[in-house]
Amino acid sequence: MKSYTSGYNLNSIMYFYNSFQILLNLYMVYGLYHIIPSGIINIPYSNTIEYFVHIHYISKYIDYLDTFFIILRKKEKQK
To answer: Which of 53, 63, 72, 73 is surrounded by the most beta carbons within 10 Å?
Structure first.
């Protein structure tokens, strides 16, 4: 059964979410750029790499919010 109610208007929340995602990804790139100049094979363990890998995994959980926003907006396609 199709619902005829419209979805929520989340423009301001989406703006904040997308800005946060951009800043978080820039932070990860900046943090790892100097550590991994020539690839990722045979790099010795460091606390810095562990920290940024941890941030990366946390960002994947934050990425899940994107799906939640699509559901709340009742969109079948992401624009």
So the answer is: 73
**Cα four-point dihedral sign 63, 67, 72, 73:** positive
Q: Give the relative orientation of helices 11-33 and 47-73 as an angle to the nearest 10 degrees.
A: 160
Phi first, then psi: give them for residue 34, nearest 5 degrees: -85, -20
20-23 own/partner pairs: CB under 8 Å, 24+ apart: 20/62, 21/59, 21/62, 21/63
Question: Alpha-carbon distance 24 to 30, whole Å?
Answer: 10
d(Cα 55, Cα 7) in Å, to the nearest integer? 32
Backbone angles phi, psi at 59, to 5 degrees: -65, -25
pLDDT, one tens digit per residue, over 35-66 is 776 666 777 788 988 999 899 999 999 999 88
